[in-house]
């Protein structure tokens, strides 16, 4: 974060945790949070400097399907409300189908030379 007073930083952190549905978990240690809660904290941290782009590597990879859908919906909501570009890496076909466009890789190389529009 940019240099700011502790009070400003604490207020911003509390607001961001509220945005991801964790306003009541701000004083918990990571080991006291579920996998989905830890992912939502990571999203809040990613948003702390209002980035123009968010890079997410397997954001739902270690989550059960229900929690994964909640985290993905949160990411989609963030993208829409903040007008943020999101680049997502996933092996989950359902998750990939939610993207506006996608680039399919095989063995680290694009399957073809075009980016496939999904919508």
Description of the structure:
With 119 residues, the protein is α+β, with helices and mostly antiparallel strands. The protein has a single domain (6-117), classed as 3-Layer(aba) Sandwich (Rossmann fold). It is 41% helix and 15% strand. The chain contains four helices and six strands. The protein has helices at 6-19, 35-47, 65-82, 93-96; strands spanning 53-57, 85-89, 101-102, 105-106, 109-110, 116-117. The strands form three sheets. Strands 1-2 form a two-stranded parallel ribbon. A two-stranded antiparallel sheet has the order 3-6. The protein has a two-stranded antiparallel ribbon with strand order 4-5. The protein starts with 5 loop residues before the first helix and ends with a strand. The model has no long low-confidence stretch (mean pLDDT 85).
Descriptive labels:
single chain; 119 residues; alpha+beta; Rossmann fold; 41% helix
């Amino acid at each position: 974060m940019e240099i700011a007073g502790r009070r400003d930083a604490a207020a911003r952190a509390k607001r961001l945790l509220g945005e991801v549905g964790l306003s009541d978990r701000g004083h918990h240690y990571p080991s006291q949070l579920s996998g989905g809660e830890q992912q939502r904290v990571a999203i809040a941290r990613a948003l702390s400097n209002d980035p123009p782009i968010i890079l997410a590597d397997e954001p739902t990879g270690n989550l059960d399907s229900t929690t994964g859908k909640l985290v993905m919906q949160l990411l989609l909501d963030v993208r829409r409300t903040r007008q943020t570009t999101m680049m997502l890496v996933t092996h989950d076909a359902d998750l990939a189908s939610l993207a506006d466009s996608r680039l399919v890789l095989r063995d680290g190389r694009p399957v073809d030379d075009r980016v496939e529009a999904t919508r």
